[in-house]
Amino acid sequence: GINAEYMGDYDETLFYRDDSYINKTTPSGKKVFWSRGNAWAMAAFVRTLEYLPTDDPHRSEYICRLIDMANSLGSLQQSDGFWRSSLLDAAQYPNPETSGTAGILFGII
After folding, report:
1. What is the rounded CA–CA span in Å between residue 39 and residue 55?
2. DSSP helix, strand, coil percent of the chain (3-state; round to 5)
3. CA distance 69 to 73
């Protein structure tokens, strides 16, 4: 869809929080992707696939995006099992992000 095309970053296979974060970086120079925003995107793919007819022409695209996101996010999970608010720069906000983690796990499981 148009939002995925505009708000998605295909290099990272993640989504920006909103358009004001496109091309924004953290103080250490990393792109800004929020865990909660990506959790909502994953949840949207999961819920859409739950109700989308199996013969819908876009179904395979949504499945691929969900799998790609899960793979990207899996590599960003921290050693304590949580994700951080800033996905690519965990040091920016080092505390565990519980709501982002819960949403990401909803999408993965």
Report:
1. 26
2. 50, 10, 40
3. 6
Cα-based distances in Å from 8 to 38, 41, 55: 10, 10, 25
pTM score of the predicted model:
0.90
Q: HSE of 44 in the Cβ direction (CA atoms, 13 Å)?
A: 13
CB atoms within 10 A of CB 24: 10
Q: Read off the DSSP letter of residue 93.
A: S
Contacts of 104 (CB under 8 A, 6+ apart): 35, 38, 39, 42, 73, 83
Mind listing the pLDDT tens digit of every residue in the chain (109 residues)?
Answer: 546 677 889 899 999 998 899 999 999 999 999 999 999 999 999 999 999 999 999 999 999 999 999 999 999 999 999 999 999 999 999 999 999 999 999 999 8
Question: For residue 60, what are the CA distances in angstroms to 33, 48, 55, 90, 94?
Answer: 25, 12, 9, 32, 36
